[in-house]
Design goal:
Strand order of the largest sheet: 1-2-3-4-5-12-6-11-10-9-8-7
Largest sheet: 12 strands, mixed
Number of strands: 12
CATH superfamily of the largest domain: Gcn5-related N-acetyltransferase (GNAT)
Number of helices: 10
Structural class: alpha+beta
Distance between the termini: 40 Å
Strand content: 25-35%
């Protein structure tokens, strides 16, 4: 590793925000962010939750170049579990900077009695995967990404699924409309999503969020009530599918959570609600709809059937600093 590489705390100045966001947008051009979004996220961070961010710099005679951004935070209410993130300018990959950042993050929390470390790495970041495997991390979950070309999508081949759901008495409406029809919409939607989420495989055992935390979803800058669809069986909420706008890319949308209650599966509801969201995305002029699923989630198979194309997956790696309790 070059000796002029140094690591310092992120100072939350406009300069650091602008430099960090610029670097991250260079590293991840398909998922750009903004300074405002970073600041909004930091403002909403619970001060009781441990989180530190760092800047990696190369210092030369008269210049300082920011080449890396890294962070570590305690991601569970159970002490000792930490999530790591580190991103490096591709021009400086393979020079030992990632290992230096990793060692720095681990040292920061060594007095906090770490039990477990975790990190997400995209599958094409092979150098970083090799590093973390050398450090004792093991892959524990794959999140399969996929994208749909909305300009070429045709609804006709899938019309039968909408007909099937309609024949079964299922109505699909937007959250925007639902809010005008049901004063108890938030509690019911919360119950629906937590029930569905409890049956999905995650990197960790599922722990339902509280209703207050769930309510924060509707205050995010990229939230749209007209882009969240709910399947109703009479007055019962039985399916959900939400879309969020991207921060910078106006022609790209993200499909977040899609699911149907176990009691209502195999009725075409999942496909019908997906088609509703695709129609919305096309109507507002989006060109691409992206989503992700745990590799064994049947929703991924549905996405592929609808024409979504696989994109690089994200891999979850974890390392136990101590043997897990039995």
């Amino acid at each position: 590793m070059k000796q002029n590489f140094t690591i310092r705390p992120f100072d939350y100045s406009d300069f650091d925000y602008e430099a960090a966001v610029k670097l991250m947008n260079q590293i991840w051009p398909d998922d750009p962010s903004t300074v405002e979004t970073w600041k909004e996220g930091d403002k909403g961070h619970d001060p009781d939750d441990f989180k530190l961010r760092f800047i990696g710099e190369i210092k030369q005679e008269n210049t300082t170049q920011i080449v890396a951004v890294a962070s570590i935070n305690e991601w569970s209410k159970r002490p000792g579990k930490f999530s790591l993130d580190l991103d490096i300018d591709p021009a400086f990959e393979g020079q030992g900077f990632d290992e230096a950042l990793y060692n720095h993050l681990v040292k920061v929390v060594e007095d906090k009695n770490p039990v477990k470390l975790k990190m997400w790495i995209r599958e094409d970041k092979t150098h970083r995967i090799e590093l973390f495997q050398q450090k004792g991390f093991k892959e524990s979950l794959r999140s399969l990404n996929s994208e749909l070309d909305l300009l070429s999508f045709e609804f006709a081949p899938f019309a039968k699924y909408v007909d099937k759901a309609t024949a079964a008495g299922i109505e699909i409406i937007s959250l925007e409309e639902l809010q005008t029809r049901d004063s108890d919409w938030m509690q019911k939607l919360y119950d629906l999503e937590m029930t569905i989420a409890s049956g999905i495989r995650y990197a960790e055992a599922f722990t339902p969020m509280g209703l207050e935390e769930f309510a924060k979803e509707f205050k995010q800058t990229n939230f749209r009530a007209d882009a969240w669809f709910i399947a109703l069986d009479g007055n019962d909420y039985v399916g959900t599918c939400s879309i969020y706008t991207e921060e910078v890319l106006e022609d790209k949308l993200s499909q977040s959570f899609t699911g149907v209650l176990p009691s209502h599966r195999r009725r075409g509801i999942g496909t019908a609600i997906k088609l509703k969201s695709i129609a919305f995305a096309k109507a507002i002029g989006a060109k691409v709809l992206e989503t992700s699923n745990e590799e064994n989630n049947p929703m991924y198979t549905l996405n592929i059937k609808l024409g979504f194309k696989p994109a690089p997956a994200w891999l979850h790696f974890q390392k136990f600093c101590k043997e897990p309790a039995t």
